Amino acid sequence: MNDVACYLAYALCIHLYYNQIEEIGTEDIFRYSEMLEAFAWISQHKKLKTLPLPLINKLLTPSVIAWFAARMTPLPYVLIEPPVEGMHSLAIVGDHPVERVDPGVSIVPIPFKEAVFLALERLETGTMDSVWSIPYELSVFNAEHKKQFLHFTSKEIEGMLYEECSRAIGVDEMSSVFECVKQIGGKTGYYSPRWLWEARGFIDKLFGGPGLSPSRRRPDLLRVGDRLDFWFVTFYKNTPDEKILRLKAKMLSPGNAWLQFVVKRSPTDHESLFNLRAYFEPSGIWGYVYWYSLYFIHKFIFKEMAENIVKEARRQKHQPLS
């Protein structure tokens, strides 16, 4: 992406590039299998074993591969299928090398292995800003539904089922409570019995969903579009008087589900309120069956979460510095 950005910025200033098709690439020549082997060695220090299956390509079409990949990764099918289809191309640079128009171009593309090192470093430090991290529901590819996931008004929650739990906290505890909220998912878990979440993730994966798959971009930072296990962040606000984190479930269910955490200062300024609310928008009769069949489990889990988040925040606040 660095190279592409450099070429685009450079082309804006050089009239030779106007209305032209130019292909950019390095002098490296790799087979796709060699690229995968290099990535495996650089990222995992493991040698990737490959097994040629000459007849399998008749069954595993790009559409089939993209379908399976969409269920094993957070990327949607519409974003996976074009790159997979592109694997039938023998080369990135073909009839329109950039040197044809501008032989004296000074930009030198980053070699493949160096680019892999750079991408992994950015991924490790959480400094990679990419459209790939933005969920399909929030992307320009699905703009007609964008409003539904970015805003919540009183009208939009009508017809939704919800379960909530609230706890009064001190004004000076607002930041510490929200810090604990922001640590949710990944290695931290959900401040409630882990086995229940793992069981839900196992069932989800069994039916073709993403499963729990503990993962998040950075343990200390959140932004809209970040993935948290089988959730992604659809709203984030952190001000002195109001702090909100809203997650939308990516797990399979007969309806849409959100989990929202709100830490808000009360009008009296003497105390604040921590509110945890789970929303569910049922899809048909099975949506209602699903929600009410889990009523007592939800009630137990959300109560545990709210109580344990407050307890953990108070423990961390009063923990002596080492």
How would you describe this structure to a colleague?
This protein has helices at 2-13, 32-44, 62-72, 77-85, 98-101, 112-125, 146-150, 174-182, 194-206, 285-293, 295-318; strands at 161-169, 227-228, 231-238, 242-249, 255-265, 272-282. The longest helix has 24 residues, at 295-318. The chain has 322 residues and is α+β, with helices and mostly antiparallel strands. Strand 5 (255-265) and strand 6 (272-282) form a beta hairpin. The two termini are 42 Å apart. Helix 3 (62-72) packs across helix 4. The protein is globular. Strands 1-6-5-4-3-2 form a 6-stranded antiparallel β-sheet. The protein is built from 11 helices and 6 strands. It has 2 domains: 2-59 and 92-125, no CATH class; 145-318, START domain (Alpha-D-Glucose-1,6-Bisphosphate, Chain A, domain 4).
Short description:
The chain has 322 residues and is of the alpha+beta class. The chain is built from eleven helices and six strands. The chain folds into two domains: 2-59 and 92-125, no CATH class; 145-318, START domain (Alpha-D-Glucose-1,6-Bisphosphate, Chain A, domain 4), CATH 3.30.530.20.
| Number of DSSP E strands | 6
Specify the CATH class of the largest domain: Alpha Beta
Which percent band covers the strand fraction?
15-25%
How many independent structural domains? 2
**Average pLDDT taken over every residue:** 79
Biggest β-sheet description: 6 strands, antiparallel
